[in-house]
Design brief:
mainly alpha, 17 helices, 53% helix, 7% strand, globular, binds adenosine-5'-triphosphate, binds L-tryptophanamide
Length: 423
Amino acid sequence: MLNCYKSQIPCRRQRGIKLELPQEAGYLVFAAAANVLSNLTQSVGPLPAGIKDPAASNGVSNLQRCRAAGYLTLAAVLLAGINHREAIVMIDGKKVLFSGMQSTGNLTLGNYLGALKNWVSLSDEYECFYSVVDMHSITVRQDPSELRKRARNLLTLYIAAGLDPQKNCIYYQSHVSGHAELAWILNCFTYIGELNRMTQFKDKAAKHADNINAGLYTYPVLMAADILLYQADVVPVGKDQLQHLEITRDIAQRFNAIYGDIFTIPEPYMGKAGANIRSLQNPEKKMSKSDENANASIYLMDDPDTIIRKFKRAVTDSEASVRYREEQPGIKNLIEIYCACTGKTPEETEKEFDGKGYSDFKPAVGEAVVSVLKPIQDRFYDLSKDKAYIDNIIKENAGKANYYATKTLRKVQKKIGFPERIR
Ligand code: ATP
Ligand code: LTN
């Protein structure tokens, strides 16, 4: 019965215990459900409250059908005797989202406003994978114990910033070997000419002239593997990463053209406010966690006094008026930060500080930032005390990520002609 049920539904991904259903699957589920429901409910009890019997009436929505399908899947899991703790039952057909951050340096306000904050708002709409991409970090030399500590802090910060680890797959890249395996394969489908054009490589090579390693050069291929491994539909990234997303799409399309429809072609997802926060010491440069000048960046864990002090010292100009315009890049950046933290528009901000000087505006920006970061910091410290809780998230989510990664990887290995595994 389980087989018959599975085979009738064109799921995007399926496992004995996991089904993701596209909307149009609703009707098939409906038909399948009508056939199997009575047998299943006899064995596992009545439908839970709030889940409508899909066979009950014509007025059942697609979502209700999908919910029923989720329940039926769970019922099937129970009947098949699979450990339900491992069962992931999805009840509607969400698109997949992948993103990640490197565990190099301490997270900045730029990382939060440009990435993390948007991630939180996307959790409900998408099936999300958020990785701590520690394998990318070693393209630049790292101190081992620092790297381990930073990776853990970053993962904890993801949660402190609002990502629910039950809804989002939050995991370490290095815990899923599929990233490295797929990256190798994709290396063989990437041209040197393409990699030569990557501006991030040129920047980082100039900055680390003593260590221009092959990993730094093929960094975009590992990033492509991250994204394609999970068949991601969307990838939230800042402007600086668009070129890497473009090469990911090119590699995927090249592979698909040879082997068929294997990879989903990902789209960039650009958030609106705060997508491009600049350095406080040099507004020509983006705020970056690897900046050697600590005054150039606001770190997520900076205490309130430090934050206010850094804003007071921010490089601006001699115009002495709070105006949102290209000619005043330092002030423009501060206005953008203020707006991202308060929800105000640049026009409202100009009005609010009309006739006032930078000595009023700069501390106000600092206060706005403190009010956003303080709750995140408090939650971070609370979470850090609960080692068992974080350990459990690391373990469970690595399992989930591995499951999806292996699925894509096996498909790819088969297509390119690697010998089958003998079980
Ligand atoms: P590094 O200095 O190590 O290169 P970084 O601070 O530039 O790090 P990344 O790890 O490269 O940060 O980026 C993590 C995410 O944060 C990416 O989505 C990136 O686009 C975003 N991001 C980084 N810096 C900024 C910024 N200044 N403004 C907006 N978004 C940013
Ligand atoms: N290169 C990115 C981090 C990163 C990433 C990814 C982002 C690695 N793999 C996959 C999105 C999707 C950066 O430096 N911001």
